[in-house]
Batch of 2 targets.
Target 1
Amino acid sequence: MSNERTADVIVIGLGPGGEDVAGRLAEAGLDVVGVDERLVGGECPYWGCIPSKMMIRAAGLLAEARRVPKLAGEIGYVDPRWELVADRIRDEATDDWDDQVAVDRLTGKGARFVRGHGSIEGRTEDGVQVSIDGESWTATKGVVVNTGTTPAIPPVEGIGDVDYWTNHGFVQARELPDSLIVLGGGAIGCELSQVAARFGVQVTVVEKAPRLLALEDPRAGELVATAFAEDGIDVRVGVGATHAEPHGAGGAVKVRLDDGTELTADRLLVASGRAVNVHAVGLDTVGIDPDARTVPVDEWCRVTDRVWALGDIVGHGAFTHMSMYEADVVVRDVLGQGGAPARYDAVPRVTFTDPEVGAVGLTERAAREQFANVRVATVDLGDTTRGWIHGPGGAGFITVVEDADRGVLVGATSAGPTGGEVLGFLALAVSAQVPVQSMIDMPYAYPTIHRGIQAALQQLSSAS
Ligand SMILES: Cc1cc2nc3c(=O)[nH]c(=O)nc-3n(C[C@H](O)[C@H](O)[C@H](O)COP(=O)(O)OP(=O)(O)OC[C@H]3O[C@@H](n4cnc5c(N)ncnc54)[C@H](O)[C@@H]3O)c2cc1C
Ligand SMILES: NC(=O)c1ccc[n+]([C@@H]2O[C@H](COP(=O)([O-])OP(=O)(O)OC[C@H]3O[C@@H](n4cnc5c(N)ncnc54)[C@H](O)[C@@H]3O)[C@@H](O)[C@H]2O)c1
């Protein structure tokens, strides 16, 4: 029996990266056990990226339809139907939150799958000991941890009495409320606020930082706030919630803000960041501070000897593409294949609001802290041919941040109708350290939005 509870590698948590690691190591011939207490694939396919982008696709169509009268004629009354989105999420995206396809994909690659709670118990000479729902297992070669995050519920008095939503409640909703207070104006808060508003919900966003998307270029938050005003969203920035309480039937809520304002709505959506639970997965038994906000790893995603961690918990960008990027690093390290270790100077990210906000590398502020000689230039899309042609929905900008001593970009933001796609060029430029002069000297197709990159680069020589 004990052999059944021994494997070469145990992967605890099968988010996008963990699933990839387990499958690839099994395909390479290792005896791999993948453990997940919920659904194989993690947050992204069932409650994150994919369902939220399905919502955004639908909400974007509504917004475009409403722009038709300004540019193309009459299409009549646009009547949003949330049930179409809810059905598509249930039937096409999540199989009604059933992961059988993903389990079969994983076991088809040769891995074993155990549904349960995994936790590291410590290390012995035989390997790393893992408890799976209380049963002891041994991983002779090592353990990979990809357990992700859970919503961080802010210390707002009374919030525990409120029947609030996190992303899970919103994604699984068959009906939207008439009104919604969104706590947090980061990526989740902004994307879901705009979806709700475009489906007719009266939305108020409360963000305690001075602006929306506070970690990005300040122009991005201002641009999104302007778009939100057009969507009828009430944006309150620089103010946090201090108290919340139920306010009638269902999930109705009353929220008090620290400026004394009281808001009421049919539902509260908490989107105020995410938390890592080191203790729950036993990383404290291998030396990690149980109160750590992220799990420190080296450039090969090693926590310590024979323990690797990847994805949101390592804190180098809570994105599916970073989880997959780190998965590749871990697979190569476990198999001793070498290659490039992880680097984080060109992390791309896109907030899929309309306008989309794409960014890579450093913001201007972060670059000025790191480099002595920084130049920054911004082009407004309205001043480019394609942005001007686009008309309604075409607002945006491209900002480039240069380390002038080396003549390379160290950061960039592209916000606009295709901000996430334009980002591809900028991400390559930052990652490969392409000389700014060679990007200025090349031709750019006309009239494209990405041609605005050249205009921004040309301004760098006269920028400071
Ligand atoms: C609404 C929303 C929208 C998003 N949109 C995007 C987007 O557009 N693009 C993007 O790149 N990212 C997006 N993200 C972020 C993205 O979902 C995560 O970065 C991604 O899922 C990677 O996370 P992860 O690899 O750390 O693991 P996760 O996806 O968090 O999965 C962790 C897994 O570990 C399991 N687990 C946890 N603890 C244990 C345990 N002790 N034992 C066993 N199993 C355990 C969980 O059940 C889960 O299945 C979004 C997130 C949200 C919430
Ligand atoms: N398009 C994407 O790639 C995408 C989409 C959604 C989520 N994500 C990932 O998921 C992660 C979590 O998203 P998130 O939006 O929850 O976190 P976040 O950290 O991006 O934003 C949370 C916001 O809530 C605010 N906040 C915290 N406490 C508050 C309070 N008491 N009152 C008012 N505001 C408060 C913070 O100031 C912050 O701006 C992100 O870091 C992102 O990496 C990515």
Target 2
Amino acid sequence: MRHILVEEVSMTYENEKKPALDCINLDVAQGEILSLVGESGCGKTTLLKIIGGFEDPELGKTYFHGKETEAVKLKLIRGHANVRYIQQGLDLKPFYDVAGNIGEHIRGYVPEERAKRLTYLIDLVGLNGMDKKLPRELSGGQQQRVAIAQALAKEPEILLMDEPFSNLDTPTKIQLIADMKVMLRKANITAIMVTHWMEEALRLSDRIAVMRDGKIIQSGSAEELYRQPNCPYVARFFGNANLLSAQDAQKLDINDGQACCIRFEDLQWSQEGIPVEVVSSQFLGPTDQYEIEADGIRLRITTDQAPTGFVKVKHVTEYV
Ligand SMILES: Nc1ncnc2c1ncn2[C@@H]1O[C@H](COP(=O)(O)OP(=O)(O)OP(=O)(O)O)[C@@H](O)[C@H]1O
């Protein structure tokens, strides 16, 4: 069932010429986890703020369960009920400890249940033993975990997250994303996350919407976007893309001379094929990554094989 609908939403900030959002259409199903990705300034946060009821669109409407949401300008308090928003920049109370900061968001429980829920949330975000610490005694990543626990404390119907994992080290981030996914599923929470990090989007979300210049230019499952990007901008977001112009493709005799993308793992060392020179190499654990040059064109290849001086293209990703 459709939970959130964004219909033809446009918005230009005061004194700005260019719209921050330009006719956005988006729907998110009940319990779906959607990631918004795109280069800095493309409008991700603005869209999240409009969905969360912190900004009004200039044009267009938003709906929850088919009901139009109330305009921000008509409300005393910004933000829609049942929507929690984890913002960039944290909003922790400096004189409350971790337990206090999280606990004040747990409402509607009898004291015993409340204490249990507090312990559960502290445990969930990996802050055991830190419940008596004040925000200034925590690292940036630990503060971020408090903010996540606060947002989950109220069991929201919709969770909006703006770069929620940005201050965390990779192992903590991966663990928290896995826990978060289980929790969102269990509570059937509909979630939208803004992120710059594609791996975060891949790990957490069911669907990814790619934004550029205030528009959603493609949305789909991670696999759809990976296998069938509609342009180089989308292909590039996964990081491992050799983007070939039509001129490059003609030079290397690839894809009938049409512009395309070749994923790093879709190039293979071979005994014959395109002659290349290795420019540099990096150890990546299970594979190595080589920067190579073929007829003046720089490419990258990730492989566990040793270089041979020639590469073969295993698969070409065409733009749909
Ligand atoms: N309060 C504001 N007043 C004027 N312009 C704004 C304001 N907030 C954002 N903008 C502009 O609107 C556009 C979209 O901004 P937004 O913050 O939504 O982008 P974003 O994709 O979330 O960026 P980032 O990834 O850097 O956080 C940008 O050009 C930005 O400069």
